[in-house]
Amino acid sequence: MTTFASINRINVNSASVPVLAAVPGLTEEAAGLIHGMRQEAPFLNITEVMEKIPGISTEAGRLLSTVRSNVYTLISDGHLPDSEVVNRIRCVVQILPTSPKGYTVLYWNESNIEL
Prior knowledge:
By secondary structure, the protein is α+β, with helices and mostly antiparallel strands. Helix content is 26%, strand content 32%. The strands form two sheets. A four-stranded antiparallel beta sheet has the order 1-4-5-6, with no helix packed on it. Strands 2-3 form a two-stranded parallel sheet. The chain is flat, with a radius of gyration of 16 Å. The relative contact order is 0.18.
């Protein structure tokens, strides 16, 4: 799950360790450190993260954020064994507590991708 923007970024103050560890250039160890440190106090900016946690690449830093959002991009890929076709669903949802479902879908796209 990512914050929806022109460049998708992961919020270091709310993402789970597996989501953080999936960021290219961010190790499982660094993801765990981010998770632990934010329990004490949220990070104010990405410069703070880069200074406090050694080994985070510049590439990873560009994919991180401290900005909170209620709009998210969700991407799901599904495929059958021995098949070279992947069905991808990409949607953008906005969390709306006043909505009957608690969210609204802003964008939905389904496509088949051949590997």
